[in-house]
Amino acid sequence: MNRHPELVPCGLAIPRYTGAKAAAGDATAKSDLRNAMTAFGRYAVVNGTFPSTIAEFESSGYRLSSRMTFTKYELKVENGRETVHMHVQHADSDNAWHVNHPKEGTEIEIR
């Protein structure tokens, strides 16, 4: 019998730690997408358009959090209105998070 119930057997600790890191990475990804949508709005007010590339967006001062990567970025015009489709992923998670802004508003989904 384990006299120290607060101690987790090593075989269980590693999956829990890995899962916690992935969950934290997913939370960071969703937060970064929300922040990016706000930054896109500011960028559009100042420049009259959305940035055409990630490099252009980053040159305006926007930065993803540590260990985050844009995995997709597309600027489109649909029905005369600009929309940005982007994916981000954290290095500790297998999930890629996506948003179409402003087409889908603030809806952030796993892709």
Walkthrough of the structure:
With 111 residues, the protein is of the alpha+beta class. Helix content is 40%, strand content 26%. The protein is built from two helices and four strands; from the N terminus they run H-H-E-E-E-E. The chain has a four-stranded antiparallel sheet, with helices on one face. Strand 3 and strand 4 form a beta hairpin.
Task: Describe, in short, the structure shown.
With 111 residues, the protein is of the alpha+beta class. Helices cover 40% and strands 26% of the residues.
Note the main attributes of this structure:
single chain, 111 residues, alpha+beta, 4-stranded antiparallel beta sheet, 2 helices, 40% helix
Q: Mean pLDDT across all residues, rounded?
A: 85
Count of helical stretches: 2
Alpha-carbon Rg, integer? 18 Å
Note the main sheet: 4 strands, antiparallel
> From the helix content, strand content and strand pairing, which structural class follows?
alpha+beta
Q: In one word, what is the shape?
A: elongated
Order of helices and strands: HHEEEE
What's the total count of β strands? 4
Roughly what percent helix? 25-40%
Strands in their spatial order, largest beta sheet: 1-2-3-4
Relative strand content:
25-35%
Which ranges are low-confidence, i.e. pLDDT below 50, for 5 or more consecutive residues? Answer: none
| Distance linking N and C termini | 44 Å
